[in-house]
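tool=predict chain=A
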Amino acid sequence: MTPTTYYIALIAKSFGYERRAKRLSAVAGEVALLRDAEYELGRVLWEKIEPIEHLSVEYWNLRKYVKELDEKRTIMNELNEKLTSLHDQRAAILNEASPAQDALEQKREALLLDLEKFAVQRDQLVRRAKEIRRIHQGHLTKIEVLERDGHKDAEIEKVKNDIEAIKIEFRNLKEEREQVAVKLEDGDRMVDEIDQGLRDVKQGKRDRAAIVFQEIGTINRELSNIRTEVGIIEEQIRQLQSEVGRYISCYHKRNPECTAVAQNERTMVEVMRMLRMSISMNQRLAHYK
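tool=predict ok
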């Protein structure tokens, strides 16, 4: 708001034309702009204010906080680099090729192939044993019929000889099946042992990765604490820089040292002066009766 618009608004108000809500809204917006400008001016000029005695406390506190901030950011950068390295290390551990693991997996695969062959052989033996049982039952029935029908002993004896041969084959099949069963059982046991070995290898990787993960957690907690400290320091710096900007803009013409420091920021200082004047006029219009 300029003096001209202020007097126009003042006249309009005398005729009952009030816009109090608008004036208060304008004040809020202009105050926010002024605070931003004060901070920006202080941020740009604070390193030059050492000669200004009134701002001595702000200057040396800013020097201290800026140094602390740089130190904290250096630590954060170092921790972030270490964090990246640890993440890479953990990924490498989990993805690393293990000769022991490869050998166990190859051995397991070969064993499974052998077990599959033994299982096929066992199934074939079981099927043949079932066939022999049927043949044996058929021969017994045949002898019963032949005896009932009065056939010669020679013919019956031949069938009995066939039955003995079948019994011998059945016993051989049974022994072979038992041998295959032992091989299957041994193979299953060996697969279980290999699986346990693979679990041990993988668990070893996870254990090593867990140690790295604990370090990652520790660093993350340190980073979180430092970020909190950095946020507090940044807020303190912002407040001090705002106070510097406020003082310089207010005493720009009354304090020669402020005039000298703000020589290159005269335009910003003038804008801030106009903002203060506009805020004052809007406040008077909002509260004037």
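The chain has seven helices and no strands. The domain at 99-241 is CATH 1.10.287 (Helix Hairpins).
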